[in-house]
Amino acid sequence: EAARRPLLRGMVPPLQSALRSGSLLLLLGTVATSAFAPSSLPMQRVAGRATRAIGGCSSLLAFAPALHRKPQLPLASTRPALVARPRLCLQMSGGAVASEKTVYVRKWLEKEVQDALVRAFGDDVKDASPMVTAATKPEFGDYQCNAAMPLAKTLKTKPRDVATKLCDELKTTIGDTFEEPEIAGPGFLNLRFKEDYICDRIAAMAKDDERLGIPKATAPTRVVVDFSSPNIAKEMHVGHLRSTIIGDTLCRLEEFLGHDVLRLNHVGDWGTQFGMLITYLKEQGFGPETGLGDLAISDLVDFYKKAKKRFDDDSDFQDASRKEVVALQGGDELSLKAWGLLCEASRVEFQKIYDMLDIQLEERGESFYNPFLGDVITGLKDKGLYEQSEGAGVVYVEGYTNKEGDRMPLLVQKSDGGFMYSTTDLAAIRHRMVEEEADRVLYVTDAGQGNHFDQVFKVAESAGWVPSGKRLEHVPFGLVQGEDGKKFATRSGETVKLKDLLDESIRIASDDMRERMEADGKDFDKEMEDTARIVGLAAVKYADLSMNRESNYRFSYKKMLALTGNTAPYMLYAYARVNGIYRKLGDQVDASGAEILLEEPAERALARHLLMLPEVLCEVEHSLYPHKLCEYLFELSQRFNQFYESCPVSQAGSPELLNSRASLCAVTARAIGLSLGILGIPTVNRL
Question: What is the pTM (predicted TM-score) of this model?
Answer without folding.
Answer: 0.83
